Amino acid sequence: TAVYPISILEYMTVRGYAREGIEALQARNQLVHIAKYTGGLAYFPRFEQDLPGIYEQVAEQLRRQYSLGFVPSNANRDGKFHELKVELVDEMGNPLKITDQKGKKVKYRVTAREGYYAPKS
User: Fold this and answer.
1) How far apart are CA 119 and CA 76, in angstroms?
2) Distance between CA 91 and CA 20 in Å, rounded?
3) Which 3 state secondary structure label does DSSP give 69?
4) Do the strands 81-83 and 98-99 form a parallel or antiparallel pair, or are they unpaired?
5) Which of 65, 89, 74 is nearest to 3 (CA)?
6) b/e per residue 12-35 (b: at least 16 CB within 10 A)
7) DSSP 8-state secondary structure symbol assigned to residue 118
8) What's the gap between Cα 103 and its chain centre?
9) Contact at 8 Å (CB) between 35 and 41?
């Protein structure tokens, strides 16, 4: 499940209710790590007006999600982390180029987990 954390720390810091420091930086890094590990994104709004845009982005990402499955070529049940790389490619294996109805190039970004832990025997 992709996780999309929305932190209030920057919001609180701007208003003087919280201080920036090593703990805040560690908390921020942890949210980024959790989001990245699950295939989501972390958000750090500074102002209340930023929230509707963030909610729209998350909703858009949820609407455009795909579930991919695969069978690993490495069948070892070693319990180790195995990296994955997800790319969009055309029939020839080249990076996929998407254009809209007017022929204009469409930018896209693939957000995916970095890997998986193999089961342990």
Assistant:
1) 8
2) 49
3) coil
4) unpaired
5) 65
6) ebeeeeeeeeeebeeebeebeeeb
7) P
8) 28
9) yes
Residues facing 115 on adjacent strands: 83
Separation between Cα atoms, residue 98 and residue 100, nearest integer Å: 7
- Give pTM, 2 decimals: 0.71
Here the tokens at position 73 are 């070529």
CA 2/CA 112 separation, integer angstroms? 9
In tens digits, what is the pLDDT along the chain, a chain of 121 residues?
Answer: 889 999 999 999 888 888 888 988 999 999 999 998 888 999 999 999 999 999 999 999 899 888 888 888 888 889 999 998 889 999 999 999 999 999 999 988 888 888 888 988 8
CB 113 within 8 A of CB 81: no
24, 18 contact by CB (below 8 A): yes
